[in-house]
Structure to design on (153 residues):
């Protein structure tokens, strides 16, 4: 991992975005949320994909977990590192982000070769502790992308 590629290291995450932390990437009117993907480790290649997403406007803000932190103490922790890709819920922006994730091999596939149907989770749902059975996704990757072909709907 190359720490110099990140804009900010704070509270267990490395953050990537234009002009952060000086400026907020979203307005107060935006309904902000995220797609979350996982990787075994944060490599420089993964970081370059994150920077590319920000530079191309696929995501205004991305963060990933700090690989140096032991996550076994967290309830429901997974092996590997989380990458959180932020967007507002405007269809054009979500589609661009979804297509970026697919085109860059960041969405895992099922045994049958179909893309996983990632859920878009609003920040308000996170603040309300909507996890597991309490979480109902209003937007999923299948609303934007054909999970069999990876093409935009």
């Amino acid at each position: 991992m190359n720490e110099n590629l990140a804009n900010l290291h704070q509270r267990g995450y490395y953050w990537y975005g234009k002009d952060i932390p000086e400026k907020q990437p979203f307005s107060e009117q935006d309904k902000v949320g995220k797609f979350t993907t996982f990787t075994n480790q944060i490599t420089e290649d993964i970081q370059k994909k994150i920077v590319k997403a920000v530079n191309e406007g696929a995501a205004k803000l991305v963060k990933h977990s700090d690989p140096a932190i032991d996550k076994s103490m967290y309830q429901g922790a997974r092996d590997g590192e989380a990458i959180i890709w932020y967007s507002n819920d405007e269809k054009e922006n979500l589609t661009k982000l979804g297509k970026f994730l697919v085109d860059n091999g960041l969405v895992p596939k099922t045994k049958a070769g179909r893309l996983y149907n990632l859920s878009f989770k609003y920040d308000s749902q996170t603040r309300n502790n909507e996890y597991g059975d309490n979480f109902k996704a209003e937007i999923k990757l299948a609303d934007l992308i054909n999970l069999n072909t990876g093409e935009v709907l």
About this structure: The helical segments are 44-55, 91-103, 123-127.
